[in-house]
Amino acid sequence: MNRSRSGLAEQMFPDAQRWMPPDVTTPPLCEPEPEPEPLVHRPTADELAAIEEAARAAGAEAGFEAGYREGLEQALQEAGEERDARLARETELRTLQEATLQETIAALEGIAADLADPLARSADDLEPELLMLVETLAKRVVMDELRQRPDLIARVLRQALAQLPSRNRPLRVHVHPDDQAILDAYANSIGESLTWLADPAIERGGCLIESGASRIDARLETRLRQSIDAIWGELAQPMESAPAEPPEAQMEVPPEAPLENDA
C-alpha cells in the first residue's frame, strides 16, 4: 500500500524529489563574524570652534593679501599718475621759462640796438619795450617763486575775496587746474563755499572771481601790469612836476639912454 501511495505521489507530482534526512555526522560550517564598524570621531564643541577660527583666520589672511596686492597696485598707479603730472608741470614750466628767456633776449637786443643809435628812436618809442622787459622779468621771478611756494596762491585768493563789494551772491572762481586743489583746501579751512571753474587759460598764481555783476580780476598778468603801471607812474611823476627852467633874460635898453655913436 505504501508503494501504491508512492507511485500515486510520483504521478501527481512528477517534479517532486524525495526528501533525504540531513547528514548530522559532519559539523556545520561557521560563517565568520562581521568586522565591527570603525568608530566615527565626532568633533567636540571646542574642536568645532577651533576649526571655525582657523577657517576665519585663513580667510582673513587671504583677504588681507588680496587687499594688499590691490592697494599696492593702486598706489603704484597713483604714484605713476602723480609722477606724470609732475613731469608735465615741469615741462610746462621749462617751456614758459624758455619762452620768457627768448622774449627777454629779444627785448634786450632791441634796446641795445636803440642805445647804439640814440637818435634812431625817441624815448617815447622805447617806453613800451622797457615796460615789456620789466613785465617779462617780473613774471619770471613770480613764476619761480610760485614753483617753490605754490601755497602763495591762497594769499591771492584771500586778497581778491576782500575786494568784493558784496558776498550775497554765489562765488565762481576761474583758476588753473594745478591750483584748484590748493585753493579748495584753503577755502574749506576758512569755511568758504566756492564754485571752481578749472581754466587752463588762467596762468598759475592767479584767479578770476565772479559774483553776480561783480568781477575781480586777480590774474597774474593783470596784477603785474597794475604794479608796473603804478611804479612807472611814480617814476614819471617827479619829471612832470619838476619846475621848468626860466627863459633867458633879455636886456632892454632904456628909451632915455642915448645910443653910442661910433663917429
Structure at a glance:
The chain is α+β, with helices and mostly antiparallel strands and 263 residues long.
Descriptive account of the structure:
- By secondary structure, the chain is of the alpha+beta class.
- The chain has a domain at 149-238: ATP synthase, E subunit, C-terminal (hypothetical protein PF0899 fold), CATH 3.30.2320.30.
- Helices cover 59% and strands 8% of the residues.
- It has a four-stranded mixed sheet.
- The longest helix has 72 residues, at 45-116.
- It is rod-shaped.
- The N and C termini lie far apart (227 Å).
- The relative contact order is 0.06.
- The model is unreliable at 242-263 (pLDDT under 50).
Offer a few descriptive terms.
263 residues; rod-shaped; four-stranded mixed sheet; disordered C terminus; alpha+beta
